[in-house]
Specification:
alpha/beta; Radical SAM protein; binds iron/sulfur cluster; rSAM; seven-stranded mixed sheet; 343 residues; 12 helices
């Protein structure tokens, strides 16, 4: 293990955090080989989403930047360039950790100016990525939200969320809590190459099941549906069936989009693993970061039909998602039955 102390102005990501001291720790253990953690003390932790009017949430908390889940298509890659860090391997391996996130959040939630609005987590990078196993920031964050009865939601691919199940249940007793797990496909061959740092789709669906068994409703964001690789009728059927069997309350499809930062990285991956598809992708994404509307509509319709067949409903934009707690022995619902708007 090696320690380096950096201060603002010494280069690297420190400059982004102004005058705050930054400590970079390079871990050389089998568990985190190849990953550098940049520990920082952030100045603020509750962030307003730019262009929030177009999003179903306005406020976010992101304790990490960069994500070792390393999804090739990750739209957050571009944000690493704001830190003067590489958006490819650097995004996967240079992880900024806001070590003071829990205490900062508790302070900001206690501010007279804070109105108690819904806070979304996991909307930029995954708050239950591997680093969370080491830094354990989420328990303090959930406790702060629970203690203020502040509604929140979490979107993740990390099965590590199950570690915090008791806390999530406590929070759901106090406020509105929404959980979504992202599973775009169940094809293990595709998973190994395109989401190499994530728990397997089966493990993620196991987390959905565990959440459901604990009385916490969990939706699945079926994202991304990857054209020509994960969109066959058989693949869509297998995925929606598995989502239903896991006990998810909703399934919401989202077709792959390729913004700058992600686009270059994904295209290089495509060229290496599926070179014959490169011309088809060039045509499909010729108009910009999004697949054509006809294609998106087709996928949405197929998934909705499958969801109906398997007995789960797609979440609608801004739809309230219910978090329930199991009935008490006397048959009454515990005080956690709450409503939430989420992704
Ligand atoms: S888990 Fe989410 S944030 Fe992390 S690399 Fe994958 S898509 Fe990006």
């Amino acid at each position: 293990m090696r320690w380096e102390n950096l201060t603002a102005g010494s280069g690297g990501p420190a400059g982004l955090f102004g005058a705050d001291a930054v400590v970079t720790r390079t871990i050389d253990t089998p568990e985190f080989r190849g990953i550098t953690f940049h520990e920082v003390r952030a100045r603020s932790i509750v962030n307003r989403v730019p262009g929030a009017s177009r999003m179903p949430f306005e406020w976010t908390v992101n304790p990490y930047r960069g994500c070792s889940h390393a999804c090739v298509y990750c739209f957050a890659r571009k944000t690493h360039s704001y830190l003067d860090l590489d958006t490819g391997i650097g995004f996967d391996s240079q992880i900024v950790v806001k070590t003071n996130a829990p205490e900062l959040l508790r302070r900001e939630l206690g501010s007279p100016r804070w109105t108690g609005a819904h806070i979304a987590m996991g909307t930029n990078v995954d708050c239950y990525q591997r680093a969370e196993g080491r830094y354990r920031l989420m328990p303090g964050i959930i406790e702060a939200l629970r203690d203020r009865a502040n509604p929140f939601s979490i979107l993740t691919k990390g099965t590590l969320i199950l570690r915090d199940l008791p806390l999530l249940r406590e929070a759901a007793e106090a406020t509105e809590v929404g959980i979504s797990v992202s599973v775009g496909f169940t094809d293990t061959g595709l998973w190994r190459t395109v989401e190499p740092g994530t728990p397997s789709p089966a493990a993620r669906l196991g987390a959905v099941r565990a959440l459901a068994d604990a009385g916490i409703e969990c939706g699945v964001l079926m994202a991304p549906v990857i054209p020509f690789l994960g969109d066959s009728p058989e693949q869509l059927r297998a995925t929606v069936r598995a989502v239903a069997e896991a006990g998810a309350t909703s399934v919401t499809p989202l077709v792959l989009h390729l913004r700058p930062g992600a686009r270059e990285w994904f295209t290089a991956w495509l060229g290496a693993h599926h070179p014959h598809l490169v011309p088809r992708y060039e045509r499909m994404y010729a108009g910009g970061p999004y697949a054509p509307t006809w294609y998106q509509r087709r996928i949405t319709r197929q998934v909705h039909e499958l969801a109906a067949e398997f007995g789960i409903g797609p979440a609608r934009r801004g739809e309230a998602r219910k978090v329930v707690t199991p009935e008490r022995p006397d048959g009454s619902a515990a005080a956690g039955a709450t409503q939430l708007s989420l992704l």
